[in-house]
Write a structure and sequence with these properties.
By secondary structure, this protein is an alpha/beta fold. The protein has 25 helices and 18 strands. Strand 17, helix 21 and strand 18 form a beta-alpha-beta unit. Keywords: Thiamine pyrophosphate.
Length: 662
């Protein structure tokens, strides 16, 4: 029958596992030997660190929809898995971690590398952590680990001591205490009741300014989301994880919501009176409509998420695609002037985005570097994004072709996941190009090590294109701007300085291609060259750390906090860049006042408040539902957009439409 290690590998095969990510150690030596005997069926992918292996397993789950499997030895190896497993937990992805342990005869003695593993994993893998104590357990434990991971979209953990891995598996018995099991599961068909669907439709049909917030739970439902948006005359914003779901070229696609999102998404949430949340559990609650502003319906396959981030009147537990299909015939397609407002919000944001990308950098504007990828990204590409300021530029400025997957560590927001995610995507689909984007801080944290894995593996791939963009600014920029915004403190160089590193030269030393750019005219050429290369390419883009990370609809106090921190630094250039972006915001608010009566919801700190005073309007605006409608018909909104395009719409004495790139 073989030993327990062989039995584990057999069960992995039965569950359809083709790839295990891990790092070697004596606590899993029998398992490694069993994997070697099964290497025609299951590939072992050796990362440079167990944390990277866990990120790869999470990435595998994200790009394939299948269970990711990672393997680590006892003690430090097990501990290193935690960040990647928490990433899977918080972004709701199925991962099974198989972990070695010291021999059973030494457990409880304080043996070398002995760690209380069930305690270690009880939170990260809260749904299922189990130690295999006897050979007869192995099948049932692995089956439960896989079933639970799939059913709960979360990580699970199986712990197997070294000597148990070596033990022989006895013949199966039908006896007391022996639990038979099978490697099967099934996804339940979760649908709301007809009564609840009717209630949801009645609420949505009464809305005059409907917004949709779409998350990763709506993956595969892009067509249904579009039909509902068209029927309701709604605008659509996405969570960060939901960005790939929606074609952002559509006129009502407002982009990503949140601190790192677009002003169009923020305006949509601020102006709506009705909200439909589809497959999103986004944590940026301050960017949702204010409580009491909008009536809400939420669709989620997990009942635990319903009403968890926003007060909803109708909760629909169900699959997003099927629920939207069932809801659609119940929705009324009446004309809503709100759609014209939404399209104008989107147009305005796109022009502001163009203006921001057109601002000169020293030497490069990072926004322009990421935005330029939109014109070069292949339709069959896969994208991974690390954590840091690069996420802001991805969320706001990269337009993904429909169907292109893009993933990142979103809820945990852990630096260092970008390259492991990209490698997992490439290993799953070696015939498709990959673009991984990261800052120099994240690359120095772990990405540099996984460049070695990239250099080791790329010759096996049908399509060798794998582009790593490194935004090199010598700064942990997101942390620096957070210190300024949240604390009014200056940047702390000892904490945030990132040492200079020759990324392009290093890539060439590894046998990869390396391109260093520091002139705007070289940006497009770099993307074109990298995406047509015969091997993986590292683009080292030397970018400006003074580019502000200003949130959408920034308040006066947020801006003043930033300026206070910058003044203490003597960072005149960053302060000037912040003032320019602040003018973008003021211009947008002034124009919104002129076009829509300024349906904003912030209090006296809102940048629109002084504008309202100038126009003799009340600054205490009250609930959105009680404020006057703009009364503009779609044709009038089109005229406003044309006026903006032609430079005829004045938006403030310190501003001109030329600066918007019109």
């Amino acid at each position: 029958m073989g030993n327990v290690a062989d039995g584990i590998v057999d069960r992995l095969r039965a569950w359809g596992t083709h790839r295990v990510f891990g790092y070697a150690g004596d606590g899993v030596d029998p398992l490694l030997a069993a994997l070697a005997r099964a290497e025609e069926d299951i590939e072992f992918v050796s990362a440079r660190h167990e944390e990277m292996a866990a990120f790869m397993a999470t990435g595998h789950a994200k790009y394939t929809g299948q269970v990711g499997v990672c393997l680590a030895t006892q003690g430090p190896g097990a501990i290193h898995l935690l960040a990647g497993l928490y990433d899977a937990k918080l972004d709701s992805k199925p991962v099974v971690a198989i972990v070695g342990q010291v021999v059973t005869t030494a457990q409880g003695s304080g043996y070398q590398q002995e760690v209380e593993l069930p305690t270690l994993f009880k939170d990260a893998c809260a749904q299922y952590v189990q130690t295999v104590n006897a050979p007869e357990q192995v099948e049932a434990v692995l089956d439960n680990a896989f079933r639970t991971a799939i059913a709960t979209s979360s990580p699970t953990c199986v712990i197997v001591a070294h000597d148990v891995q070596q033990a022989e598996v006895p013949e199966k018995e039908h006896a007391h205490g022996i639990v038979p099991s099978a490697p099967v599961t099934a996804a339940p068909r979760v649908m709301p009741s007809e009564e609840d669907l009717d209630r949801a439709a009645r609420l949505l049909n009464t809305g005059e300014r409907v917004a949709l917030l779409v998350g990763q739970g709506a993956a595969g439902a892009a067509s249904e989301v579009a039909k509902v948006a068209e029927r309701l005359g709604a605008g659509v914003a996405t969570s960060l994880l939901g960005k790939p779901v929606i074609d952002e070229s559509l006129p009502w696609a407002c982009g990503v919501m949140g601190h790192l999102g677009t002003t169009a998404a923020a305006d949509l949430m601020a102006g709506c009176d009705t909200l439909l949340i589809v497959g999103s559990n986004d944590p940026w609650t301050e960017f949702y409509p204010a409580p009491g502003q909008a009536r809400a319906v939420q669709i989620d396959i997990s009942a635990r998420n319903l009403g968890a981030k926003y007060p909803v009147e109708v909760a629909l537990a169900g699959d997003a695609t099927e629920t939207l299909r069932a809801l659609l015939p119940r929705l009324q397609g009446t004309e809503r002037p709100w759609r014209g407002e939404v399209e104008t919000m989107v147009d305005t944001w796109r022009r502001v985005a163009q203006a921001r990308c057109a601002e000169p950098g020293q030497p490069l504007n990072p926004q322009a570097v990421v935005a330029a990828l939109s014109g070069h990204l292949p339709a069959d590409a896969q994208v991974s994004v690390d954590v840091g300021s690069v996420v802001y530029w991805y969320a706001r400025f990269l337009r993904l072709p429909p169907g292109v997957p893009a993933h990142l560590s979103s809820t945990l927001a852990c630096m260092g996941a970008g390259l492991p995610y990209g490698l997992a995507a490439k290993l799953a689909h070696p015939d498709r190009p990959v673009v991984a984007m990261a800052g120099d801080g994240a690359m120095q944290m772990s990405g540099n090590a996984e460049l070695i894995t990239l250099a080791h593996r790329w010759r096996e791939w049908a399509d060798p294109r794998f582009v790593v963009l490194v935004l090199s600014n010598g700064d942990l920029a997101e942390v620096s701007w957070e210190q300024r915004e949240m604390e009014g403190d200056p940047r702390f160089p000892a904490s945030q300085d990132v040492p200079a590193f020759p990324w392009a030269d290093h890539a060439r030393l590894l046998g990869l291609e390396g391109i260093r750019i520091d002139r705007p005219e070289d940006i497009d050429k770099a993307w074109a060259t990298a995406l047509s290369a015969d091997r993986p390419t590292v683009i080292e883009a030397v970018v400006d750390p003074a580019t502000p990370l200003l949130p959408p609809r920034a308040t006066e106090s947020q801006v003043e906090q930033m300026l206070t921190g910058l003044a203490q630094e003597g960072a005149d250039r960053a302060a000037e860049q912040l003032r320019i972006q602040r003018e973008h915001e003021e211009a947008r608010h002034r124009w919104s006042c002129a076009a829509f009566g300024d349906r904003t919801r912030e209090g006296s700190d809102d940048l629109a408040v002084p504008i309202r005073r100038e126009r003799g309007l009340p600054t205490d605006k009250g609930p959105v539902r009680d404020r006057p409608r703009s009364g503009l018909r779609p044709a009038q909104h089109r005229r406003h957009r044309l006026a903006l395009e032609e430079g005829n719409l004045k938006v403030g004495s310190r501003w001109s439409s030329a600066r918007l790139g019109c």
